[in-house]
Ethanolamine ammonia-lyase reactivating factor EutA
Amino acid sequence: MKEKIISVGIDIGTSTTQLVFSGIVIENTATSFSIPRIKIVEKEVFYKSKIYFTPLITERIIDGKKIKEIVEGEYKNSGVQLEVVKTGAVIITGETARKENAQEVLKSLSDLAGEFVVATAGPDLEAIIAGRGAGADKISKDENKLIVNIDIGGGTSNIVVFQDGEVIDTGCMDIGGRLIQIDKESMKVRYISDKVKRLTKSLGIHIEKGKLVSFDTLRKIAEAMADVLAQAIGIQERNANYNMMITNKGIKEGYDFDGVTFSGGVADCIYKEDIQELLKYGDIGILLGEALRKHLKFRRLNIIKPKETIRATVVGAGSHTTDISGSTITYTKDIFPIKNIPILKLSINDEKSGKIGIESAIRQKLKWFHLEEESQSVAVAFKGPKNPSFKEIQELASAITCGCEELIASKEPLMIIVERDIGKVLGQAIHKQLDFKKDIISIDSIKVENGDYVDIGKPLANGKVVPVVIKTLVFNS
């Protein structure tokens, strides 16, 4: 039986805030003799809000009161009544992705988004969310191509590499459309970031807040930014400017990309060639888009327009899919229910890379969930081997315990989700290797993906199974 629900997505970024309302049709696709499996079978975005500049109290702290005013106003404009919205997601990205901001948003939107997924995304996770939202992963999978997506916002450019639809690398650069802001009437500089100021000095350009700047100078700076992004994806030789503009890390060199997609606010300025007012937004964003569109190295690479650009980060919101774990599970303490745990999913290639490869993959992907000096609770997920031997289970347990040192050091339980039915024996092996000193939750028969969040409910059937709610961000792909 089909059911139509209304979903709202709220994207709060460094520069902009926006809402999207979607109609989602869900259906139980399992047979009458099987455990229910609810899936999205149709989706239609029926309302997109105007794009607001994110209201901030300081450069890093969101003004929760004004965010609530924006959300309430857009509910009214859309004609959607609060009580008919069944699900949703609040995605907090860029400089606004801080723990105190997530709490502030939750507090201010508690009566509007009490059951929503609230995801604070650091630069790596933001790159993945944006790439999937743009549809770059689908292009990569459907056309069997190596695709790089560059999501260029106000403050950063988040980079993700997809191979056959799976994430294989991420990076981030301090390149964005609002890192230089100009008064359009006087041509005086209203703001320039420290890193961009250093970039201009390398070009022999002296630029200061409050001083006049010429149009030609701004264009040269935009071209230098485009050069840095070309270096970031390895299509131009890297130099000191590239090293200076890295946010947290870059992607590896040596990729032979089949194409590049752009998303984020600047992307529209890359795909549109007839923009008349180049300082329309009082920043360098349109000029940066123009520089990228004309850049010879990018033109040779094959620029592909994705399904979404400025609204790529999230165009829908959480579809709650209920499932039941397998009966071969392990949990050392009943601390359920647990809510809103993000998924770290290993790829098939990660799983095939052996003990050292699995350890390295977990360590690298844990960085996706870092917010400044903080980290989040994370569930490590993978398909798992078919009919593994005792030795294979022990080696897999060892790889997980070594790769998950950061999670093991935290106060939270170590959470493992396996698609195949090895949760119990794997959980017991991990627990033993940790001298029974760490709480473990190891469940199986659950399929999740990167970008999903899970709730795990109180155990059922005398503790043999647990209900799992998979919250999938609904992307426009």
